[in-house]
Amino acid sequence: MFAERYQRNLGTMTPEENRSLRDFRVCVIGCGGLGGYVIEELARLGIGQIIAVDGDVFQHSNLNRQLFSTEALMGQSKALAAQKRVRSINSEVEIQAIDHFLTEENADSIITEDCHVVIDALDNISSRRLLERHCHSKGLPLVHGAIAGWHGQVGVIMPGDKLFDQLYPEGAEKGAEQETGNPSFTPAVVASIEVAETLKLLLGKPGILRNKLLTIDLLEQEYDIIEL
To answer: 129 φ, ψ to 5°?
Structure first.
């Protein structure tokens, strides 16, 4: 069963590396545009444990881009939809749904030391700063992704790096998504890169985007790595 399910992973990773994914625990903060694709891809890779965190429910405006959003799920929990989807994809994956937004009060109980990587699939700056602080306090790597219209960005934040101090001015609360909207393809691209960076972190592969920011312009098909 293992060989058949993960056959197309091989070559990208060894059978031993693929089997080792069962031992990892990844926490995804946000189950919407970015988070839906991230969770889907983690489950298909064979990550053993996924924590899906989101206190939001589906709205009609989510249908254009959020993978787990369907017309039948309007008003229902995004985290619980993620859980149901993962169970239908890969019964070997343990998925925990946390139907709450990340806050100062619950961050310590959600972001725990037994996680191996935390993935940022949020849509606002204040929550990202909170997430970065708690990952730093727990000594956990954080994979950042953000989207806005045709554009996206990805970076890897190790404890103490404080990437968001460099990206966002003091007092900024809203990301560019609020003004530009998002089509379906931008979160799919950015989420896939976030998952690739997560896999490299878990398996100790070289070339992670630490102290770097990958910027993506899908309109002009320009991809740049900024050294930070």
So the answer is: -65, -40
Q: 144 near 156, Cβ under 8 Å?
A: yes
Instruction: Report the C-alpha gap between 37 and 35 in whole angstroms.
Output: 5
Helix ranges, the chain (H):
2-5, 15-20, 33-45, 78-89, 107-110, 125-138, 163-167, 177-180, 185-203
137's CB contacts (< 8 A; 6+ apart) are none
**Which residues lie closer than 8 Å to 218 by C-beta, 6 or more apart?**
150, 151, 152, 185, 186, 189
For 42-88, how does the pLDDT look when each residue is reduced to its tens digit (9 = 90+)?
999 999 999 999 999 999 999 999 999 999 999 999 999 999 999 99
159-172 residue pLDDT tens: 999 899 999 877 66
Tokens encoding 221: 């098909």
CA dihedral for 73, 36, 95, 104, sign (positive or negative):
negative
Residue 139 and residue 159 in contact, taking contact as beta carbons nearer than 8 Å: yes
Q: Are 135 and 108 in contact (CB under 8 A)?
A: no
